[in-house]
Design a protein that fits this description.
It contains 21 helices and 8 strands. By secondary structure, the chain is α/β, with parallel strands linked by helices.
């Protein structure tokens, strides 16, 4: 997501920050690189021109050219403009209406049906009681697909498989929702290969009859510049309230998201970040700008941890770490909880790690994932007793474990030694944290971390 743009912007800012003094000439060179980066990321020319003009007006002023830290000033300006380009602020989904009606529409292949199930799961976690309505009566197997997805997330799908009357289906679904106590109704409408009169007529009828609180346009982020034309047409006809960008995790350019927001003036409310049902994230412009500029997104990572990690289990593991009872079984539980946060690549993308470029992060993630799989194989080849008491693993047991997972005995020896060292280090760190002390190495790491603009003051004292 935004990898191409992110890498180019970071390199440009790093280059100009390294100069002793920022002049109008080298600032123009930097802005030329920023312009190229945006165009390569598939951002529309109109949006790029406005973006560069805004930065130039602010960056070539006396305040930056004479600043003691011109590089940091430039980062702040680019960050602020990126936030505005992405929509300015997060706009939460509306819950108005009894029931609250959310209409999803878009072209075929945009991920609309999958988004309906993901969105239902998301709003249920927020305390709502959703019902999904299968209103795509034209695409073969669309209803079956939605019913299957509904079962996956354990959310009911209202469907009338023998009917082609979309207006009647939605009318009956809303009555059913009122009778059964569902307070959010998500309507999955039909898509087309292209925008046509029939499609718009059907959507306009639904809009005027049921007045949905949300009219969300689902767009495949990999469409590129065509996404702008699609968004503008739907907005002119229906007055969309927000956008859902799907497959954003698979688009290294991401320019469509930037262009669509600016061309319609409507916010991106959600971003599809993977195939799993819980991989739909609220869209926060500030956090996305931080990711693009390599500042990480610690807030989203913390929120994911709060949602995914079993707090009681985590407390129990921490208690064992402080004592001497931490076992390989507990280590595997920790690894499982880490996996619930996403892939190593996604986690690294949310951490502000200075001096590591895209290629290094990918390599680190690749090696790390491979190592974790090996460790899982080692531990799975052990008996429950051996996992609880690694000290009891004798040479003969090591031979059996190595044979069971296809490893060499020296690898098993190295792993057990590293696990023992890790236990000692974790015990020391958790002990210091409990006593209010921060290890010197961690202080150094914190000082080296890049903080998002405006946040540095919150971390004084390290």
């Amino acid at each position: 997501m935004f990898e191409t743009l992110s890498e180019r912007l970071q390199n440009t800012i790093k280059d100009i920050s390294g100069k002793g003094k920022i002049t109008e000439e080298n600032m123009n060179d930097a802005l030329r690189e920023v312009r190229r980066a945006l165009l390569e990321a598939d951002v529309s020319l109109k949006v790029v021109k406005a973006f560069i003009s805004n930065i130039k007006d602010k960056a070539i002023g006396e305040e930056v050219l004479k600043s003691i830290t011109p590089g940091q000033q430039l980062v702040k300006i680019v960050y602020d403009e990126l936030v505005q380009l992405l929509g300015g602020q997060n706009v939460p989904i509306s819950t108005e209406g009894k029931p609250n009606i959310i209409m999803l529409f878009g072209l075929q292949g945009s991920g609309k049906t999958t988004t309906a199930a993901k969105l239902a799961l998301k709003i249920r976690k927020g305390g709502r009681n959703p019902l999904i309505v299968a209103a795509d009566v034209y695409r073969p197997a669309a209803i079956k697909q939605l019913q299957s997805l509904g079962k996956q997330v354990n959310i009911p799908v209202y469907a009338e498989e023998d009917s082609k009357d979309v207006r009647q289906i939605v009318t009956s679904a809303i009555k059913f929702a009122k009778d059964e106590g569902y307070n959010s109704v998500i309507v999955d409408t039909a898509g087309r290969l292209q925008i046509d009169t029939e499609l718009m007529a059907e959507l306009l009828i639904l809009d005027r009859l049921f007045e949905p609180a949300e009219k969300l346009l689902v767009i495949d982020s990999m469409m590129g510049q065509e996404a702008v034309n699609v968004a503008q047409t739907f907005d002119e006809q229906l007055g969309i309230t927000g956008i859902v960008m799907t497959k954003l995790d698979g688009d290294s350019r991401g320019g469509a998201a930037l262009s669509v927001v600016q061309s319609t003036g409507k916010p991106v409310k959600f971003a599809g970040m993977g195939e799993k049902m819980d991989a739909l994230e609220p869209f926060y412009p500030e956090r996305m700008a931080q990711r693009i500029l390599g500042m990480g997104d610690v807030i989203t990572l913390v929120e994911k941890a709060q949602q995914s990690i079993n707090i009681e289990e985590a407390k129990e593991i921490e208690k064992k770490i402080r004592g001497k009872d931490f076992s390989l079984e507990d280590f595997m539980k920790m690894q499982k909880q880490m996996k619930s946060l996403g892939s190593l690549d996604q986690i690294l993308g949310m951490l502000p790690i200075p001096g590591i470029n895209k290629a290094d992060k990918e390599k680190l993630a690749y090696v790390g994932e491979g190592q974790l799989k090996k460790i899982e194989a080692y531990v799975n080849s052990m008996t429950p007793e051996e996992r609880q008491h690694p000290d009891m693993i004798s040479p003969s047991r090591k031979r059996r474990i190595a044979a069971g997972c296809g490893a060499e005995i020296p690898e098993i020896n190295r792993f057990l030694k590293e696990f023992d060292n890790m236990k000692k280090m974790m015990r020391k760190v958790t002990g210091m944290a409990k006593g209010g002390k921060i290890p010197p190495a961690m202080k150094g790491m914190m000082k080296g971390m890049k903080m998002p603009p405006g946040m540095a003051g919150k971390f004084k004292g390290f």
